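Researcher: We're teaching a course module on how sequence relates to structure. For the next exercise, students receive a sequence and then see the predicted structure as tokens, so they can try to spot secondary structure elements on their own. Here is the exercise chain.
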Amino acid sequence: MAKIIDGKKISAEIKEELKVKVKEYKEKGIDITLAVIQVGNDPASSVYVNNKKKACEFIGIRSLAYELDENISEKELLDIIEELNNREDVNGILVQLPLPEHINEDKVIEAISPLKDVDGFHPMSVGALSIGKKGFVSCTPAGIIELLKRSDIDIAGKECVVIGRSNIVGKPMAMLLLRENGTVTVAHSRTKDLMEVAKRADILVVAIGKPKFINADYVKEGAVVIDVGIHRNENNKLCGDVDYDSVVDKVSAITPVPGGVGPMTIAMLMSNCVSSVGLVKE
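Model: And here is the predicted structure for the students to work with:
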């Protein structure tokens, strides 16, 4: 019987721990503030931003909301980021992606101070991760490591396969697994014999962006499967990159969709905000 890794439960535990830390900081006169910038009113982005605000409220972080018109110029957005970089009372800055086409996402990400880059997307944050230095880590991969550790799944010495090579999930995921002493293979849409590569994995992390792409034929008996994907199927129900029903009886542990990786992303964003204390003033 596969262990169902409960991301909702684990994220709730993390938020409770952070709530205690935030209270301790407040007792020392230290407030934590996250600035969230949303350009336009994309419905999915609005849901994410709202969830982030709720999480801030729950753990005691002040959130500043910048809800900007989708026609705002790139310069105006960069000016707001620059102002927030210079504000001592702001610990973290988050720009909700995607941005409208006329705004260069890379330029916006690079404009955020690495000391306030709670999303972990800045090239300096990514570079720090790649050479084992301290820095903010992309929230979804960081959340996956927490899911594994808090589910008593040992990473050291395991054969780990990450399917997907995005800057937000695939690449940082591979580096974090390496940091935990996993033996890591990064596979992707151009990988030859993807099925054979996936079947080697003791820990299989799937972020390929295709609904129900990974079925039982791709999975080794007793593997741990982490599903990063989120889609709506033909019946408008949420599903992941993994065909859950096909693999659940073959694996030792698996994350469901929804309720697996998703809740961890916001929990780790909150964790990054709390760990930002002190960085701004140093």
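Model: If you want an answer key for the exercise: Residues 143 and 264 are 5 Å apart (CA to CA). The two ends are 50 Å apart (CA to CA).
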